[in-house]
Design brief:
The model has no long low-confidence stretch (mean pLDDT 91). Strands 1, 2, 3, 4, 15 and 18 form a 6-stranded antiparallel beta sheet that branches. Strands 5-14-7-11 form a 4-stranded antiparallel beta sheet, covered by helices on one side. It has a two-stranded antiparallel sheet with strand order 6-12. Among the domains are: 101 residues, RNA polymerase, RBP11-like subunit (Gyrase A, domain 2); 146 residues, Beta Complex (RNA Polymerase Alpha Subunit, Chain A, domain 2). By secondary structure, the protein is of the alpha+beta class. Helix 2 crosses helix 6. 20% of the residues lie in helices and 30% in strands. Belongs to the archaeal Rpo3/eukaryotic RPB3 RNA polymerase subunit family. It is found in: Nucleus. This is DNA-directed RNA polymerases I and III subunit RPAC1. Pfam families: RNA_pol_A_bac (PF01000), RNA_pol_L (PF01193).
């Protein structure tokens, strides 16, 4: 059980990490009020955006929440935020070396730049070939590898010098608007398209071709990874690295080299070691390999300070992914409270029977 002094920090040692459990729950400590209070939560909980790059990469700090909540945000971002992805592929002709199933799988993993909130969920009863402007996006892929008219095989054997469209890229996917899709929300910079134009789909030889039609629908990562809006969504605890005594010279240099670049700098003529940016340390614990240095550093992890790194696939801006995860978690809490109130009041609704035990 953690002590009162260590309950907010986990101590990193040579062989293991001590006091990892989060203990700020009611009843853990006699005489300590750890009950949840809205005013206390508002005072402690904070979100700071540290870096936001081109809508794709987001680094933010979250303070004052329990690990279960932080992990809930992460899991929701991975699996419960909807996007549009290719679900059905109708192949008219495929003479490439890639089998139909593998080709369809590769196409399904191509992220599509479109706002999923403008679409409804496709009815489960609808057949695969059915389309509607409110729940389906249609693309077409027609590519044939043909010899260039000015090709000179005796001078060059490179396929790019001999053939046209021997590489099939995501840029070859052509959006086919349904009804008034092109006239409503999806014009100009908002036109529906693959996020990246140079994703390699296949390579063709002379006279080989691919001719197919694709239907994209709304889905979530829990059903298939192709619907996940993030390439990665992860967090770590904020490191806190402190020197117990002054280090200079050769010891300071070894101390600096034991951490990630930029964590420690050598200051002054003596080259004194100073911790300048603990947050970027990778947690390698290399410092504990040095017998004369391992007892001269205090390495802690702050339990309620989370560093989130969210990398979007490009289908949805990274900041929107985080905000939607907050909305979804709030919705889950509201649903749970409604069911809890029904259970407490003993009300049995004909559409939702809740058994209380």
């Amino acid at each position: 059980m953690a002590t009162m002094e260590s309950r907010g920090r986990a101590n990193v040692t040579e062989l293991y990490i001590e006091d990892t459990a989060y203990s700020r729950y009611p009843g853990n400590y006699w005489g300590v009020d750890d009950s949840w209070k809205a005013e206390r939560f508002k005072k402690l909980a904070k979100v700071n955006i540290e870096r936001y790059h081109c809508g794709r990469e987001l680094e933010l700090d979250i303070f004052g929440i329990a690990p279960a909540i932080a992990n809930a945000y992460r899991r929701i971002m991975l699996a419960e935020i909807p996007t549009m992805a290719f679900e059905h592929v109708f192949i008219n002709n495929n003479t490439s070396v890639i089998q139909d199933e593998m080709l369809a799988h590769r196409l399904g993993m191509i992220p599509i730049k479109v706002d999923p909130t403008k679409f409804d969920w496709k009815p489960t009863s609808a057949p695969p070939e059915s389309t509607a402007r409110n729940h389906t996006i249609v693309f077409e892929l027609k590519v044939k590898c043909e010899q260039l008219p000015d090709a000179e095989p005796e001078k060059s054997g490179r396929r790019e010098d001999l053939y046209k469209d021997y590489k099939v890229f995501s840029k070859h996917l052509k959006w086919i608007p349904l009804a008034d899709q092109a006239k409503t929300h999806f014009r100009g910079k908002n036109a529906i398209r693959p996020v990246h134009q140079k994703i390699l789909i296949a390579k063709l030889s002379k006279n080989q071709e691919i001719d197919l039609r694709l239907h994209a629908v709304k889905g979530i990562g829990r059903d298939h990874a192709k619907f996940s809006p993030v390439a990665t969504a992860a967090y770590k605890l904020m490191p806190d690295i402190k020197l117990k005594e002054r280090l200079v010279g050769e010891q300071a240099k070894r101390f600096k080299d034991s951490f990630s670049d930029g964590v420690v700098e050598l200051i002054g003529d003596e080259g004194e070691a100073k911790v300048v940016n603990a947050r970027i340390d990778s947690g390698s614990r290399n410092i504990f390999r040095h017998a004369d240095l391992k007892d001269k550093v205090q390495y802690d992890l702050i339990k309620d300070h989370y560093i989130f790194n969210i990398e979007s696939t490009g289908a949805i801006p990274a900041i929107d992914i985080f905000l939607q995860s907050c909305d979804i978690l709030g919705s889950k809490c509201e649903t749970f409270l409604k069911e809890l109130n029904l259970c407490r009041s003993g009300v049995n609704d004909s559409s939702s029977m809740i058994e209380c035990k």
